[in-house]
Structure formats: C-alpha cells, structure tokens
Amino acid sequence: MTTARPVALVTGASSGIGKATVVALVKAGFEVIGTSRKTSGATRRDGVTFLSLDVTSDDSVTAAVEEVIQRYGRIDVLVNNAGIGSSGADEENSIAQAQRVFDINVFGVMRMTKAVLPHMRAQRSGRIINISSILGFIPQPYMAAYSASKHAVEGYSESLDHEVRGHGVRVLLVEPAGTNTPFNANAVEPDMPLEVYAEQRRIADQVAVSFGKDGDAPAVVVKSIVAAATDSKPRLRYAASPNARRISTARRLVPASVFDKQIRKTNKLAG
C-alpha cells in the first residue's frame, strides 16, 4: 500500500502530547502512524494506524520502521516524542535509574533516527522532530537525570542537523514548558531515597506537579510540532508556548547570577 499523502511516524502516541500530535497531523494532511508499547498489533482508528514499538529495543525499532516502509513506501516526518521523567536528588538515583531515563529519552531518539535516516536520505527529504523541553537549556534541581537527557537531545539534534541538511533532511527541536499531561505521574522515582533530601524532594515534586497542572494544554505544543512538520523554511528550535519563549529569552539575556537566584527561588531552595 502506498499513499499520495506525506507519511508521519510518531512515538509515544498513546497519551498526552503524542496522542494530540497524531490527531493534529491527520488534520494537516498526513498519513499518520502512532506507536507505543501499549499497542498490541496493528490497529487503525480515527485515521491513525497504531503500531507496537519499544524505543529501547533495537529489534522493535527496526521492525516498526520496516513495517511503515513496506506499507507506505516512505517516511517524511518522524516525531520523537516518547519519553520518561525522573525525580529525586541525583544522589538518590542509581546509575541504573539514570540509564533507564537515557535509554528512552536519548538512545530511543538515536535508535529511531538511525532507522529512518537511510530512507529519508534516499528520497532526499525528511524531517526529524525531537521533543525536547525547556529543561534542555535550563537546570532543574531534583530532576538532574531528566534535564541531562534533554540537554543531550539538544546537542545531538543541532549537531545532526548540520550533518544531514545537505541530504535534504532537517532535524528540529520542539521545546515545551510545563504541559498539562499525565507525564509527571510516570516519572522514575529515586531507588535509593535519603532522609537528608526528603523534605526538599517533596517540595520539588510539588513544584513539578504545579507546573504541569498550570501548564499548557497539549494542543499548544502540538501547534509547534505541526509547524515544524510543515513550515517551508523550518527553524531549528520551536519554543512551544509563550512561557517557553519567555524562559528561552531569559536564559540568553538575563545575567547568570540573576537566573541562578530565580531557579533557587522557584524551587524554594535556601541560599
């Protein structure tokens, strides 16, 4: 089966930003394939084909991409949305915990990218849209592994974009701020909790929940994803909301000492 419409593949499509993205891309004229670990076999609903995919598995990634190519003959847009959060002080999280976060948030992006790039190069066109975060360019206490993973995605994406642009492929970043989704509920909890961090961890968790509850609706972020997929002259970075744009501007223009104090104030840290 082939299609005259451009083909978009979206990871982490079972809820939140990913779920809203597949719907929006269908409306924008794409043939859309949404993936998640929760999908059992290939199903189709609301104009979206859903496939099972685990971004931490080389075999799963290869099989899913090959199935899309066999069905539709091409992939024009890849949205790397699958991700997981983390909480707790870094000292409270084992290396195994950090590896889990990186395996999904960083190496999952790399696996998907490596699987689709040969096809995009062959057709001399394609866009890889990586869902980053404002925590890809600012720090967040008690979310060190997650913030580090998004910093890694930022550096990887910008570097790769230079490598593949001459082949007709772009690698783009969408940077949400706080978003009202179930994302925080699935964050990796510290596996070595320490009493010395317990109270501050509790405060940090409350701050994270508040940011999510008062954050943008997924539809706000999705507008930036659709723009990245369809703009005739795409930008490397799309700040996904007015709040994300304000924070990005502050990070670049506000003196480091002032920005540091604001981070500590926001997270109710002494000193």
From TrEMBL:
Domain of life: Bacteria
The keyword Oxidoreductase is assigned to this record: yes
Membrane spanning residue stretches: none
Pfam family, one: adh_short
The keyword Oxidoreductase is annotated on this UniProt entry: yes
Keywords from the UniProt entry: Oxidoreductase
Family membership: Belongs to the short-chain dehydrogenases/reductases (SDR) family.
Protein name, per record: Oxidoreductase
Organism (species): Streptomyces pratens
